[in-house]
Design a protein that fits this description.
alpha+beta; four-stranded antiparallel β-sheet; two-stranded antiparallel ribbon; 14 helices
Length: about 325
């Protein structure tokens, strides 16, 4: 029996997740972050304002506009001339587009190591995309995001500019192609998602947008890393801060110095408290939008501008991200 060639490289295999809800899967953060950073779908799609909205859509076994419009935009990013994107046709269209990529030797989420080929997940699937369980849908969305990052001309150009990548080395640098200012939503600083901090037990805390949602993970550079949501409402958010304060290191005595984990814990508390005002503002706008019985939401009307002026700040759909530490560490699992 001949063993594998020494020159043959095998990707690591992450242990299967035991999560029973999409809120406890890193792929949910990965996909939602991509939506916020590289599309205008958040705020444009009615009902898609927070990660919770995305998760609830995944859990539904019925065709719904949130997932349908997300799929349509992802497919257009890959194949701009694609038609048949209506809710009753999108499942077949997604299967057809993915099948093209599965024919290549590029390893996808659906790579079969024994066959040395990608396996079509739609083969033999009853009920199509919307009839599948949330795990299947999430894997499809993850795959579509990875393909866009790899193959979408527009998205690759955004990333290249943010990181200062110039493919034509003989091309003169100019201001138009210079990396964006750090305050720009398309800058490297904005496109990355790094933990907002870590506690004294070295657990990482993540926030994606200005909702009260917080995720906590173990070391994302280990294949056994786990991620789970620990708050979704304002009350839960404040409870997390309270728990962190109760486990905070004691006041220093004269001449003492804090360890790095202790200082990180205190810095994390300050960072989370610093977001409360923005969270309250976002929740206030969301509540106002919910109170409109008919017509477009204030986000897309002159009424939105008045709300904006009333609060004294801009409520542009927030969030954004994609090249974030956790996805890079867990990719190709």
């Amino acid at each position: 029996m001949v063993g594998p060639s020494k020159s043959e490289k095998k990707g690591h295999i992450c242990p299967p997740s035991d999560a029973t809800h999409p809120s406890d899967r890193w792929e949910t953060v990965f996909v939602y972050s991509f939506i916020c950073k590289f599309t205008n779908l958040r705020g444009k799609i009615e009902g898609l304002e927070t990660p919770v909205d995305f998760e609830n859509a995944l859990l539904s076994n019925e065709p719904n506009d949130i997932l349908s419009q997300m799929l349509a935009q992802f497919i257009l990013n890959l194949k701009p001339q694609t038609r048949n994107l209506s809710v009753d046709q999108i499942s077949t269209t997604v299967a057809s587009v993915l099948a093209e990529y599965f024919k290549t030797p590029e390893r996808t989420v659906f790579w079969n190591e024994e066959l040395k080929a990608n396996v079509d997940p739609f083969d033999g699937l009853d009920g199509g995309f919307f009839g599948a369980d949330w795990d299947f849908k999430l894997k499809i969305f993850r795959q579509l995001v990875e393909l866009q990052l790899t193959h979408s001309t527009e998205i690759k150009a955004t990333i290249d500019r943010a990181w200062g990548v110039v493919h034509n080395k003989h091309k003169k640098k100019d201001a138009a192609n210079a990396p964006p200012d750090p305050s720009d939503p398309k800058s490297q600083e904005s496109l990355q998602l790094l933990p907002i901090g870590q506690d004294c037990q070295r657990k990482r805390y993540w926030v994606v947008d200005e909702s009260p949602r917080i995720y906590v993970s173990t070391n994302p550079w280990k294949i056994t890393a786990t991620l789970r949501a620990i708050s979704s409402t304002r009350d839960e958010y404040m409870s997390v801060i309270g728990q962190l304060k109760s486990s905070a290191p004691p006041e220093l005595k004269k001449g003492q110095k804090r360890s790095k984990p202790e200082q990180a814990h205190i810095t994390l508390i300050a960072a989370l408290e610093g977001r409360i005002e923005a969270i309250d503002a976002e929740l206030a706008v969301s509540n106002l939008c919910d109170n409109f019985e008919t017509g477009p939401t204030p986000r897309n009307t002159a009424e939105f501008k008045r709300i904006d002026q009333f609060f004294g700040c801009e409520f542009i759909p927030s969030g954004w991200l994609i090249y974030f530490e956790f996805s890079a560490a867990s990719a190709k699992g």
